[in-house]
Amino acid sequence: MIRRLTATLLAASAAFAALPAAAQDEAGDKVNMVIVYGEDAAPEPVGDEIVVVARLPEADRFRIPETLRYSDNPANNSWASRVERLDIVGDFGILSCSAAGAGSETGCTQAMIEAAYADRASGSSVRFAQLIEAARQERLATIDEDAAAEQQRVEAIEDAYMERLRQERDAELPDEATTDTSLPQPQ
Q1: Which of 19, 34, 89, 117 is the most buried (most CB within 10 A)?
Q2: CA dist list (Å): 48 to 6, 45, 96, 128
Q3: H-helix or E-strand spanning residue 20
């Protein structure tokens, strides 16, 4: 029975994991994410792409990325952090993410999610999602003015075309100016 429950939970979690991937298949703006060091020039956008530039100090150019500088090896942990982990010794049962007790594995997913959000919140790495959103807002800020300028340009072209058509309608035909209007008499 536990195997069936585990298999059902795994199938359900796989189905839910596929939903965000399907949402990402929709085409959106083409985004080029670049990390630039010091005073280096940022690449120019090609066509309709958004170029998001994260500028880091020149001193970081040849350094190991900050996310890789530290190790989770237990030998590198202080005694204080090791003692803090002792508070979970008696934690078992449903939603506990332990090997003891019925339903204890059900809390592991929640623990992984909480750990991922904690890492993300405390990380000092470049946050491209925020930079992309700022670039999109900057791009959308000028869209109304661009649309108004394009509309004025199109209306000016239409007015010039209509004026040319009116002049052509009002102009004399070449045959009207030189031809005698009287018709020859039949014989």
Answers
A1: 34
A2: 47, 7, 49, 18
A3: helix 2-24
Q: For residue range 79-121, what is the model confidence (pLDDT) as tens digits? A: 777 776 666 666 666 777 777 777 777 778 888 888 888 887 7
Q: Which amino acid is at 94?
A: I
- Counts for the chain of helices (H) and strands (E), in that order: 6, 2
Q: Exposed, middle or buried by CB within 10 Å (0-12, 13-18, 19+), for 184?
A: exposed
The per-residue pLDDT for 5 is: 45
Dig out the tokens for 117 from the structure: 């959000």
* Intra-chain end-to-end CA distance of the chain, in Å: 116
**Beta strands 31-37; 50-56: pairing state:** parallel
φ, ψ for residue 144 (rounded to 5)?
-65, -45
Rounded to an integer, what distance in angstroms lies between the CA atom of residue 73 and that of residue 54?
30
Is the entire prediction scored with pTM above 0.85? no
